[in-house]
Amino acid sequence: MTKTVKIFSHAISRRSFLISVGSLGVAVAFGGLVRNAFGATMSLVGEGDYLPNAWVTIAGDGTVTIMSPASEMGQGIMTTLPLLIAEEMDADWEMVRIVQAPSDADKYGNPGFYGIQLTGGSESTRGYYELLRLTGAQTRKVLLSSAANMLDVSVGELTTEPGRVVHARTGRSLSYGQIATDGSLPDPLPQVTEADLKPTDQWRYIGRRDIPRIDLPSKVDGSAVYGIDVQLPDMLYGAVLRAPVQGEQPERIDDSEARALPGITHIVPLSYGVGIIGETVEATRRAKDLLNVTWSTSSRVRNYTSDRLLEHYRDVGRDLSQTGVEAFSEGDADSAITNAATVIEVDYMSDLVCHATMEPMNATALVTGDTVEIWAPTQGPTGTQGFAAEVVGTTPDKVKVNVTLLGGGFGRKAEADFIVDAVSLAKEVEGRPVKVIWSREDDVRHDKFRPLEAQHIQVGLDVNGNITGWRHRIVADSIFARTNAELFASAGGHDDVVTEGAHFNYTVPGHRIEYIRQDNGLDIGFWFAVGVGYTRFSIECVIDEIAAARGTDPLQLRLELLKDQPRARNVIETVGQMAEWDRERDDRALGLAYSDAFGSHCAQIAEVSLNRETGVIRVHKVWCAVDPGVAIQPRHIEGMMIVGITNGTGHALFEQINIVNGEVQEGNFDTYRVIRMSEAPEIEVAVVPTSGSPVGGIGQAGLPPVGPAIANAVARLTGGVRLRHYPFLPERVKAALGA
Known about the structure:
This is Isoquinoline 1-oxidoreductase subunit beta. It comes from Vreelandella titanicae. Keywords: Oxidoreductase. This protein is α+β, with helices and mostly antiparallel strands. It folds into 3 domains: about 40-220, 2-Layer Sandwich (Aldehyde Oxidoreductase, domain 4), CATH 3.30.365; about 225-300 and about 360-435, Aldehyde Oxidoreductase, domain 4 (2-Layer Sandwich); about 305-350 and about 450-739, Aldehyde Oxidoreductase, domain 4, CATH 3.30.365. A hairpin with a 5-residue loop joins strand 20 (about 455-460) and strand 21. The chain is globular, with a radius of gyration of 27 Å. The two termini are about 35 Å apart.
């Protein structure tokens, strides 16, 4: 391996992570650190009357308010996006206040999501990056123009320092606060292009490790407001009893006992369940338990049994006569496989998984005539406006959405079912706000699960073990068929989120991807890394299977297949050095996996051991090298990799939803198994940005490689035993060992 340079690298244990975060919180709460250790802060409203554009407001005291257009759900985006504006306008980060942008897609929509306000898909930084930098550059030009008029000099004689315009020749300067107080906005406003953006060697904030997230202090001292924390005058509470099988409706409701409970004000029949409104959360939950409902029995989902369907999906994938939509084709993969000297043919499968966000679904709504106001931890303000308007019979412009902090999202809070609950019940008590909080059982059993899926892969090899063709068939339901039917139709029935990640950057002469949709009535949805989470599982495991068939080192094979991909090679070589790939371990083994999903290159190596008697896998350590293109906040990128790796480890080993005859069998964390602190691996991350490359998405980039890295480690530890079914439950591991 050639030598690479680790630009940013940090090893972190569970204990040191908790101590570092905890000490930060103590310092914030008790004033133990100086102000410049934290910089910008969160604010509820903007300050000042000097408005260069919709994104920035400047007050007379120099305070700069910057709008944050994306939903903060722990991924740090409320710091990252405003930082881009602050960088280009030369704001003093100490004087910056960050405000959650209102629901207004015309002003704050994400260019990466067709101009709507939606946070997901690791698209926030990628979508807003250029827009916000240009916005900052234009703001700087506005300030320079105003200052030129005030100082009676030409704009070309002026420069900026953080929070100040400087006329070097005379030594005069104006603070941004002075300009805001006495200056005027130029008319017309100056225009900007990419040529006006700062070169990288002039960045003050982008790339620095010492700029912490602005949301952390409030989360440590308890002042942070999540959706579940919202309190309003005269507020009522709501709960909804849903059918045990999705798609059923209440046919007969006996609510006599529920109505008799103290504190219950309304029982509301809904098309999909029964709503309860009361004066306390406890009263509504007790009333919900006392409802006696006879449900319809006509839903197609009653035929949904996940184990049986997954076997069917596998059979469909194997049956080449059952064709689907061609998602990608390059070269003649079919002929290459037919004429290959050797064909590797395998099936990979994944169970349904649920989001299990720490903050369950909740929303508060107030309906007054034809206007609606909503307070919610939503990833999609634009969609929230549309669904709320439909419930009330008004227009989206009459719906105001106040986005709170999210206690986890992972795609689940891009949905609107919990919003519809709150608005439907608030409509019944017009003029009084109603807060609906789902129980954990509601949250698990009525989730929009990541799709059940099976993948059939055929790889043709020539006599020298070189890949001649790769055929990848993905069998699963569609997310877009439900959430964006127009887009699904225009794509010819292809769901590029479900198949995302199947198109890789390995060099193969023939490559074909097929999507074979299955429709069994169950709503499935976006889940952390969605398709990439399972397509890279199969791809990276198959790469190791090819290496084994050739007798080639898996790391060297990847480098060979990525000979024209310097960024990919760099992260693989870097992580190999970090983990000492070639060093032998006693009773442990290393596994490698790589992903270029979301525009970021990420390679990971997992060190695992295996108890052959119990089938329990233990992941001891994970090394990760990631190239995000531009490392806006390298310390934050490390944190997001830790999140993705921890989540991905739990997803690979434990997480599973079982449905029998339409009914979800799990209901809480006693039955839906997530990773425990004691099971989380030690994690070491190296951030290796590439100058001049596009900015990549980070929020989900850490999850896809960890599962296949674990599976590949098990294969090396056991002499080739392959785990091909997520999650790697002990009984599945023992079955594979005995096969």
